[in-house]
Amino acid sequence: MSKVFSALATSVDGYITGRGPRPGHGLGDGGVLFDWYGDPRNAVVYDSLVERVGAVVTGRTTYEDSEMFGGEGPHPTAPMVVASHRPAPTEYADSERQFFADTIEAAIELAKELAGDKDVAIQGGITLTTAITAGLVDEVVIHQVPVLLGGGRRLFNDLPEQVRLVLVEASPAAGVIHLHYRIEK
Amino acid sequence: MSKVFSALATSVDGYITGRGPRPGHGLGDGGVLFDWYGDPRNAVVYDSLVERVGAVVTGRTTYEDSEMFGGEGPHPTAPMVVASHRPAPTEYADSERQFFADTIEAAIELAKELAGDKDVAIQGGITLTTAITAGLVDEVVIHQVPVLLGGGRRLFNDLPEQVRLVLVEASPAAGVIHLHYRIEK
Known about the structure:
2 copies of one chain form a homodimer. By secondary structure, chain A is an alpha/beta fold. Chain A has helices at residues 40-52, 60-65, 104-115, 125-133; strands at residues 4-11, 53-59, 80-83, 98-101, 119-122, 139-145, 147-148, 163-173, 176-183. Chain A has 4 helices and 9 strands. In chain A, strands 4-3-2-5-1-6-9-8 form an 8-stranded mixed sheet, with helices on both faces. The longest helix of chain A has 13 residues, at 40-52. Chain A binds chain B through residues 12-14, 18, 30, 32, 132, 140, 142, 144, 146-151, 155-156, 158-167, 170, 172, 177, 179, 181, and chain B through 12-14, 18, 30, 32, 132, 140, 142, 144, 146-151, 155-156, 158-167, 170, 172, 177, 179, 181.
């Protein structure tokens, strides 16, 4: 059974972008959130997460900040479903890697179909929080980067009620600690 | 030389209180942030931090939410300095454990004098963020509790610029992971 998870590089104060994220500068300014990717000691963790992904769900904000991923997706091979109340843009309408759904439930359902035996990865803080609120997320991996960014887009947004987690694994590594949480159901 | 640090129980989404913190309910509602205190495996970490503290700096919000600590302080023995632009209240004016200072700089300077050879602990997210911005904090310990609270008072507030940290130690324990960061100077 496919799992739904997120795995996002996040500052200690909870931001997944620097200040001023915008189209063409999706990660904002002064980004240091991905400095750890290059270290081979982190590659094991990162590659094993990438390997799990059969489809990605992303929000409209991330999609537009990322300039529609140029008709592709954030994952090297997996298709992407954009959860958005607004109509799908006509650009890249013929892309075989970009799908649209108008609710988070429909987006995750479609992503699970597309993922087959693999898992669904959620990108974007608003989309992740919406999906957690809907009870649709199984795991959250935080690549906690040792910096306070002080502003940007948050990993977690307001929730209507508290959600219990279980720490499955914590792996301190070079320039990052990988915190792997399971959501209690 | 005295260090200035904070060590606060914090949810994975960055809150140090539940929803609706207010006088008499300083930790808000639905608090689960301190469930781990009772476990002896956490006592070693917690007690060693308490032992370091020679004085506490707190903000006016925390002070009032905590009903002026009844003329005492949050620490069993250490005096407390309240950083507040507003005039000191007359209640408990004769307390030998409560002092007031009108800037964060003055509060930390006074706390260092009071602490002697011991360290200064900062309580309260606004006060901590102000002190970090002023370059006055050496270490931040986050007792990260496996819950998303979804609302409350935040550990970190907006910063004018990014601050680099170094992860000194990460100790996964029962119902909490202790993340010990040093601030790069």
